[in-house]
Amino acid sequence: MAQLGCLAESLAVALEVGAALSAEGMDTALVLGTPSAPLPEAEAVVIVAPGDGIAACDALLAAGARQVLQAIAADFEPLATGRLADALLRRLQASFAPLAPSDPARGRSVYLGHLFLGASPAGGEANLPRRLSAGTEEPAGLIPFRVVEAGAGAIRAEMSRLAEWGRRYAVVDAITGEHLDALGEAARAQPLLIGGAGLAAAAARQLPRGGAIVSPPCGPGAVLSASPARETLSQAGLARLYAPTFDLRDAEGAAAALEWAAPRLSDDTPVVIAALPPAMPALGALAQGLVARGVTRLLVAGEEACEAVVAALGPPVLRMGAEADPGIAWCAAEGGALHLLLKPGTAGARDLLLRAFAPPA
């Protein structure tokens, strides 16, 4: 039975939240799309269904979820976030929800209601109560640093006070993991939470956990790197010094890439296919071809590439496994031997594309 249910606004957010829950020892399933069947047995279920949040929420409730996390990016889009939050409040018959996109472990913090990335204010509207109010029909308040610093009891009292004053949401200041833990404790009885991976981990620490059950990945490995981000280009540049690498310049080269990769597949060193933007339309079919040729460990870098590969391979459920780097976890496709490491963002150490395939210590 699910203890915690999460509704993610995107695949990138779902992967980060799922990795955080798995790292806290929760058996976590990631469901891609609005469920058409009963949800899998898991302690936490993360659903990627940005267009049908209420149907996904109903599926989580049917699976026994006691608390729902609306999982958002730190720079959330106010209209989509606000509309879904309003609908979830009504569906859950809740009168109040805290919002905390802080994730101190990844350099995201909120102070006096303002979002900071590292030491700098976030771009756009950094005032989160104002940003949220632009997308919701309900008034939003703030639980400031001085209250959060006083601990769970003070946060709980402030949430009650704000709800009595008619506030339906409150942005919560948090600059340390301890602040999020205090919020997690204070909000144990709240049906709805709104936040990211940091809040997900804090909520998980309030729950009994049986531990993840995904076996370590093994077998032939491949990397599909298709991101123009500087950090990912640097990772791919280091990988090509130690692993066989094919430069895929356009979609027409996909067949040649598969022919090149097949004799080089091994359990020890992954093959790396570095794709330029014109090759993007071929990545889904390329992933299918690699799996058909025996790849059981596939690392995909780049947001568009991750979405294309997931759509092509079509696993409806992924089980979150061990982290290869903070916030980036292997996941296993249910019912098969395939393990995916999906890296839509820029996170990860420079040697990630190689180290992810090293034998467990």
UniProtKB/TrEMBL annotation:
Keyword field contains Transcription regulation: no
Cited InterPro entries: 4-carb_acid_sugar_kinase_N, 4-carb_acid_sugar_kinase_N_sf, NBD_C, NBD_C_sf
Coiled coil: none
Residues covered by the Four-carbon acid sugar kinase N-terminal domain: 82-202
GO molecular function terms listed in the Swiss-Prot or TrEMBL record: ATP binding; kinase activity
Entry keyword Kinase: yes
SUPFAM superfamilies, per database record: YgbK-like
Pfam families, alphabetized: NBD_C, SBD_N
Residues annotated as domain Four-carbon acid sugar kinase nucleotide binding: 282-353
Family membership: Belongs to the four-carbon acid sugar kinase family.
The protein's name in its UniProt record: Four-carbon acid sugar kinase family protein
